[in-house]
Design goal:
The protein is α+β, with helices and mostly antiparallel strands and about 1000 residues long. It is about 35% helix and about 20% strand. It has 23 helices and 36 strands. The strands form five sheets. Strands 1, 2, 3, 4, 5, 6 and 7 form a seven-stranded mixed sheet that branches.
């Protein structure tokens, strides 16, 4: 038995049991870790066997992926192989002013010893056969100007920049490269150097080539940097720094045949055709069926999709057929490959037609009447509880009436002072109690929550009671009593001088305009004095937080929003649409040569066709013709200080479509829970903005270019970016800042003026939060006087130089002004055109200046006392001028005729893209089915040239009629013969030459006005 006093101490070395590790052990944790995955169960294999299985699976997956890549590579290689395969499109881009892409193309043909096409001088794309590699290249000369080069680059598989060894890349070339980078750079086959023979020696030429290689690699890092020279120079060889043109051309052809185009995502998901021939069948007065022949590129061509013709809109496909083929002296007629399914064909409807009676108010139901009665009863009950007497009619009259400030001031000053009681300690003087209340109220109202008490009671009463309650907690034993206080008299206007205040306000505005505050607060606005601010800014609202304050996106929408479409989930729709296109087996395979019959095409499309410019049609993805609130993320790329304002007209290049829009800009802010974004009045240089406009849907991140239209000259590139997802619920809030000046400052309170000019406006905007330029936050406490002065309280003390701001917001919308845009056609007669005109006007001008300098030709004319010895010289001048004019205009006329003849010769070639073109022409001639064969716009070009040729001699005739009598008169006077009738006739004709020119010009203008307009079409 143990002893009673026996005890033991608690062991300090006792080890505690290990705690339960609940991480990933509870059911909830395990479910969260698995995230719905179902396990395969316990594995019966060992770790080595499992590792071997994983290794085998990885090898099999790698083999499958390798086979897939080999199959894709083989398919892409076979796509361009063969005599009947589509050619690779190579854009020959000149970057320097002294190089010509047509000369470069001629050098390539000569270096490969291939016969030159007949229409290579016309600037049309030509086919370069690579016989050794069984491929073909479509060489397309590209203009240097922007935006003319954009359609060429969009269809190009490869690009061949041409540079000069004598002249550097100028500003136009730099702009061209920047534009190409913005829309997507095709594969670079290397560069071409021209005028290499102008180098001084071999060392200098090698340095030039290395410099051009560095230039290429700097701008296009993915290219190999090879620079070719396709021109042999007599007397210069490899030792002189001039490589062999044949070897260079063979290396270029080998590189071009082995290279595959990388393409672009947005283009490869669309099917498109680079036309080889165009036929038009008249079916109606203005519309008809356009037959476009060419190879299918991009993705499969489906007859159910819509076809987009740049500049003219969307059209439906009538059918897709094969091309006629000659086999054993027989012509196989075209066979129908696909006819659209009427149930699956995309509709041409691009926007909704709103019903004006859709939102009409019907007769209320019994449930709605009961709800309205309940709301009225609840409102009356609340009014009785608050003890407020609402006079709605009086308030409405007060808001809508323009009340003069002087009567309001007189009534306020003459009103009797009201008395009120305040709970205060015993012995407190009423004057002292009033000051205690005021000082405590400034400390108590630190938060904006106390503003809610303004709807129930006065600020001073509420703060006095709150101060009394806090004092009771600190001094529980002290007794209180009700002290009767006389309300403070509203005598702020007693010493108010209106003239002095107006003078100070004027000087304040002048100083404000001179300061650079517009850069810091571009949304500042002066409060008008002639109209109440509550009426002027009645459509604006205040937001406590610009990022998180709620704003209903479907509130007070304009009628234009009833026309547009909105996706329930744009991302899922985009993913599903692209997946269906990639997995669909319906349609014409890529690389097949077909004829697409497009119905409903206007005949004015033919006027835009030109053999110098490829004609391309694109197939749209589903829903891409629907109009929505489109958004593009753009950045200013120009270095100019041009002012770009919201709603200014801009030319938009988005993918292969072009529009004339009036966008509104907003901040590119991706944060915020209310989807509210600040409206930008101006698009400043170097700024990133979101431009919103009513436009069609785009599923891919298509490249975007913004151009500013100019009255004279081509459009100017302003911005570049990409297309973002359409967001009709995006709220673009226009902000205005009403500013005020702190007049008196006492700790955290301040008297602010010049923000409002009547007490009703102060009370109306009282719930809105105030901010300052130095970061202070506050709110309006009460109004002082009748001239808009107000007492405000802030979180910290203000500085004397600070400015008080009140931010108001209003939602803005773009205008429904989007129209299709297409480039104006200009006739280019070649480089000699300017020389002929300069010679025509320069030579007579120089002769007259010489005669004037010698004193033999004066302003008084031949009938004002000139000596007889000068008659011959004066007549000689006129005769020489007449001769030079006739010769120059004859040369221009011959040149135009030569161009017309070249166009007629190229009429049967259809750009020379395929050998079957002439056969198809014969088929058309044999069938006699009233088809109009238009080969790359030869007929419209011919008509324009002929019209110019017919009109030009009219001015020549007028010029000769004007001056031939004077020349005749001068010659006769030289022989001593003078006739009064001839004098009178000469004076009349010479002085009425301008009238004859005006008559001819007027006749031509009237003729043009009678023609149908083919400018920008309405979308």
């Amino acid at each position: 038995m143990p002893h009673e006093n026996n005890h033991h101490h608690r062991s300090s070395a006792k080890a505690a049991n290990k705690g339960f590790k609940s991480r990933h052990a509870t059911k909830g944790a395990i479910k969260a870790a698995n995230k719905g995955k179902v396990g395969r169960g316990a594995s019966q294999t060992s770790a080595a066997v499992a590792s071997a299985q994983k290794r085998t699976d990885r090898r099999n997956a790698a083999k499958i992926e390798q086979k897939k890549k080999r199959a894709d590579l083989l398919t892409a290689t076979r796509l361009f192989s063969g005599n009947n395969a589509p050619p690779k499109v190579v854009a020959v881009v000149p970057l320097c002013p002294d190089v010509d892409p047509i000369d470069t193309m001629k050098h390539i043909f000569n270096a490969l010893e291939v016969d030159l096409p007949a229409d290579i001088d016309s600037g049309a794309p030509v086919i370069l056969p690579l016989t050794n590699f069984k491929q073909r290249l479509l060489l397309v000369p590209v203009p240097r100007t922007v935006p003319q080069l954009i359609p060429y680059i969009q269809i190009a598989d490869f690009m061949l920049p041409v540079m000069s060894a004598d002249v550097e890349v100028d500003a136009i070339g730099d702009l061209a490269m920047s534009t190409i980078k913005s829309i997507g750079v095709p594969n670079i086959l290397g560069g071409v150097v021209e005028h290499l023979e102008k180098g001084t020696d071999a060392k200098h030429r090698h340095a030039i080539v290395k410099s051009l290689q560095s230039f290429l690699l700097a701008h296009f890092p993915l290219c190999d940097g090879r620079v070719y020279n396709f021109k042999d120079v007599d007397g210069l060889a490899v030792k002189d720094g001039i490589p062999s043109a044949r070897l260079e051309a063979n290396a270029f052809s080998r590189h071009a045949s082995s290279s595959l185009p990388k393409g672009s995502v947005w283009r490869d998901h669309h099917s498109y055709i680079v036309s080889e021939g165009v036929e038009f069948v008249n079916t109606q007065d203005d519309n008809g069926v356009l037959k476009v022949t060419g190879f299918v590129r991009g993705s499969k061509l489906n007859a159910n999709r819509l076809i987009s013709i740049p500049g003219f809109g969307e059209f439906q496909i009538q059918k897709i057929t094969t091309c006629p083929v000659e086999h054993k002296d027989e012509i196989i007629p075209p066979a129908v490959l696909q006819i659209p399914n009427t149930d699956q064909q995309d509709s041409l409807v691009s926007f909704n037609t709103p019903d004006p009676l859709d939102a009409e108010q019907t007769w209320p139901t019994e449930e709605e009447i009961a709800e309205a009665d309940a709301r009225v009863a609840a409102l009356q009950h609340r009014r009785l509880q608050l003890g407020e007497d609402y006079k709605e009619d009086d308030e409405m009259d007060l808001e809508n009436a323009a009340v003069a400030p002087q009567p309001i001031a007189a009534a306020a000053v003459g009103a009797p002072a009201q008395r009120r009681t305040v709970r205060a300690p015993k012995g407190t003087h009423p004057y002292q109690a009033a000051w205690i209340v005021d000082s405590d109220s400034g400390e108590e109202e630190d938060s904006d929550d106390n503003d809610e008490s303004d709807d129930v009671m006065d600020d001073d009463d509420a703060i006095s009671k709150s101060m009394a309650d806090s004092s009771a907690d600190e001094e529980e034993e002290e007794e209180y009593e009700e002290v009767e206080l006389e309300a403070r008299k509203n005598d702020f206007d007693a010493n108010f001088n209106a003239a002095d205040d107006a003078r100070q306000y004027k000087s304040y505005l002048e100083a404000k305009k001179k300061a650079e505050e517009d850069l810091q607060f571009p949304d500042e606005m002066d409060t008008p004095r002639d109209i109440p601010a509550r009426l002027r800014f009645s459509k604006y609202r205040g937001l406590k937080s610009f990022r998180t304050s709620p704003w209903d996106p479907y509130e007070n929408l304009p009628i234009d929003y009833a026309k547009i479409f909105q996706f329930e989930n744009f991302k899922k729709t985009k993913t599903r649409t692209i997946k269906e296109i990639e997995e669909s087996d319906e349609g014409i395979d890529v690389g097949r040569r077909v004829i697409v019959w497009i119905e409903g095409v206007p005949q004015r499309v033919l006027d835009t066709l030109s053999c110098q410019k490829p004609f391309v049609v694109y197939a749209l993805m589903p829903h891409e013709n629907k109009i929505t609130l489109s958004s593009i993320a753009v950045r200013r790329v120009d270095d100019s200080k041009v002012v770009i304002k919201s709603k200014d007209p801009m030319i938009l290049f988005v993918g292969f479509r072009r529009f004339l829009i009036n966008p509104i800009y907003s901040a590119d802010s991706r944060s915020g829970t209310n989807n509210v974004h600040r409206f930008e009045r101006y698009f400043h240089p170097g700024q990133n903005v979101i431009a919103s406009f009513y436009g069609p849907v785009g599923f891919e991140n298509e490249p975007v270019l913004l151009f500013r239209p100019n009255e004279i000259g081509p459009p100017t590139l302003i911005a570049a970016g990409t297309l973002v997802a359409p967001t009709p619920t995006r709220i673009i809030a226009k902000r205005i800042l009403l500013t005020g000046h702190p007049f008196k400052i006492h700790k955290r309170t301040a008297v602010v003026r010049y923000m409002f000019f009547n007490p009703q406006d102060v009370e109306y905007f009282k719930p809105v939060q105030l901010t300052t330029k130095h970061g202070r936050v506050g709110h309006i406490k009460e109004s002082l006087g009748t001239h808009g002065y107000m007492k405000c309280i802030f979180d910290e003390q203000l500085g004397a130089s600070d400015t008080v701001c009140l931010a108001l917001y209003k939602r803005v919308y773009p205008k429904w002004t989007t129209v299709l845009w297409r480039e104006s056609e200009h006739i280019n007669f070649g480089r000699g055109d300017w020389g002929l005109h300069l010679f025509n006007w320069g030579i007579p001008f120089a002769i007259n200046i010489i005669a004037l300098a010698q004193g033999t030709f004066g302003p008084e004319g031949a009938w004002c006392g000139l000596p007889d010895s000068l008659w011959a010289f004066n007549g000689l001048i006129i005769s020489i001028g007449l001769g030079i004019t006739a010769v120059c205009y004859a040369l221009i006329f011959l040149k135009i005729s030569r161009i017309i003849k070249a166009s007629n010769e190229a009429k049967t070639s259809e750009i020379g893209l395929h050998s079957l073109t002439q056969k198809s022409t014969n088929i058309t001639d044999r069938t006699k089915n009233n088809l109009i064969l238009l080969d790359c716009g030869v007929q419209p070009l011919e008509s324009k040239l002929q019209q110019t040729a017919y009109n030009l001699p009219k001015y020549v005739v007028v010029f000769i009629i004007q001056w031939i009598p004077y020349a005749t008169y001068a010659i006769l006077m030289n022989f001593g013969k003078e006739y009064f009738e001839l004098d009178l006739f000469t004076v009349i004709l010479v002085n009425s030459g301008g009238i004859w020119n005006a008559m001819v010009y007027r006749k031509l203008i009237l003729k043009e006005m009678k023609k149908p307009a083919v400018q920008n079409g309405q979308m």
